[in-house]
Write a structure and sequence with these properties.
Blueprint (H helix, E strand, L loop, with lengths): L7 H21 L6 H8 L3 H7 L3 H7 L2 H12 L9 H12 L1 H8 L6 H19 L11 H21 L6 H20 L4
Helix pairs in contact: 1-2, 1-4, 1-7, 5-6, 5-8, 6-7, 6-10, 8-9, 9-10
Length: about 190
């Protein structure tokens, strides 16, 4: 079932607040930003801010929704011929297309709130995905250890890429990610992926 689309005024206000926190993060980093600075820059009232978000962390995490929906939708609608490796390409492409937002949300100026949130969501999603092909009888490694390694490697490469101003295309980053991780994944799963 599809979520109802929020009122356009609500969408505009939420987008204004998200754009404002992104601007402030890029200027001075996440940790020092206050809610007062956000509402002053956005030129809205305090009650309007708190109608939409309980604090600046919830506002920051709202910027992750489109990305989360992208990778959740990918596994729900995996097309014939598509592999799980296309998932990392989608995330690299999303970061490339939304560079200022993603850099503010995940780069070195963002703090750890969103990184922890994204990592937790990716671990949950990939645990569900790999559980379907995980043969407990053949595995010498716990699934959760494997997934944490996989997600940590991806996140490390994504953050490095953002912090170095995307020196390679999304496709090249994905190819390097696959080159580094695919042999280990195939060895652990004992199958070709």
């Amino acid at each position: 079932m599809k979520k109802p689309t929020p009122d356009r005024r609500i969408q505009r206000t939420r987008q204004l607040l998200l754009n404002t926190i992104v601007e402030l993060i890029l200027e001075k980093g996440y940790e020092t930003i206050t809610v007062q600075e956000i509402i002053d820059r956005a030129n809205i009232g305090r009650s309007t801010f708190y109608f939409h978000f309980k604090d600046k962390e919830e506002l920051l995490l709202s910027g992750f929704e489109n990305l989360r929906e992208s990778y959740e939708g990918f596994y729900r609608h995996l097309a014939p011929g598509q592999t799980g490796w296309d998932f990392s390409l989608i995330l690299f492409q999303h970061a490339e297309q939304n560079r200022p937002l993603i850099k503010a949300l995940l780069g070195k100026q963002a703090g750890n709130a969103l990184l922890r949130h994204m990592e937790k969501n990716l671990v949950a999603l990939l645990t569900n995905h790999f559980r379907k092909i995980w043969d407990k009888k053949k595995q010498t490694m716990p699934l959760d250890v494997f997934v944490v390694f996989f997600v940590s490697t991806f996140m490390g490469m994504l953050i490095w890429w953002l912090d170095h101003d995307l020196p390679y295309s999304a496709e090249r980053m994905n190819a390097m990610f696959m080159q580094l991780t695919k042999p280990g994944v195939e060895a652990v799963l004992n199958i070709q992926v």
